[in-house]
């Protein structure tokens, strides 16, 4: 039997927020589910939140505030949200891109203050370009650089290794170098395996996608080729580290083995005290 210490709750897939307001009856259902369990919780907020989307930024901020409030209500330590994305056209306009980054910095700092009041850490996750070639998704090194500029104790990082692996290959960047700085800020880890290949081939279903080894596959550790041993031998992580295993339910038979492998990685992780 494997002991699980944390469960990540996918708020984005529930009915708790409606029209940027919390439905109390739905929140109470969640609170009742979480009550008297021998577990700790983290929360994954809406996948659509994008603080580089200047046109709709007020909506994104309101959603993040509701996510903070939900996380606080169940004593979840971390709220995972996504670093902003933009168009390739805007990214290539240095002045405009830097302006958006500055806005994101300011808004995250303000949200950090709100999270601090609610005793929540916002853990900002790196993405990969699963949209199209007209979009730009910043690399992990950029995420780390921006979080350092924000410099708020309640704004930290979620390092998703598969996202970083795919995005590094997509932009021809060096994977270990890309994640090394971000790792130092990542109190939250999303761990699952893949082959770092963007899905650009048609596949009929998920099984075929796994057959080809393309996309963000959420495989058990060891099924892909992410060099986890090298990562945990070399990189430095902060104290208070929480590791979430994001493995597809179809691999349930391999959950115990993956948990064992993950614990071995955590045991040898270099922690910055």
Task: Compile the SSE list and pairings.
Elements: E1 6-10, E2 17-18, E3 21-22, H1 24-34, E4 40-44, H2 57-73, E5 78-82, E6 86-87, H3 88-92, H4 94-117, E7 121-125, E8 135-136, H5 140-150, E9 155-160, H6 161-170, H7 175-183, E10 186-191, H8 206-212, H9 228-234, E11 236-238, E12 242-245, H10 255-268, E13 270-272
Parallel strand pairs: 1-4, 4-5, 5-7, 7-9, 9-10, 10-12, 11-13
Antiparallel strand pairs: 2-3, 6-8
Helix pairs in contact: 2-4, 4-5, 5-7
Provide an overview of this structure.
With 273 residues, this protein is an alpha/beta fold. It is built from 10 helices and 13 strands. Strand 2 and strand 3 form a beta hairpin. Helix 2 runs parallel beside helix 4 and helix 4 packs across helix 5. 36% of the residues are buried.
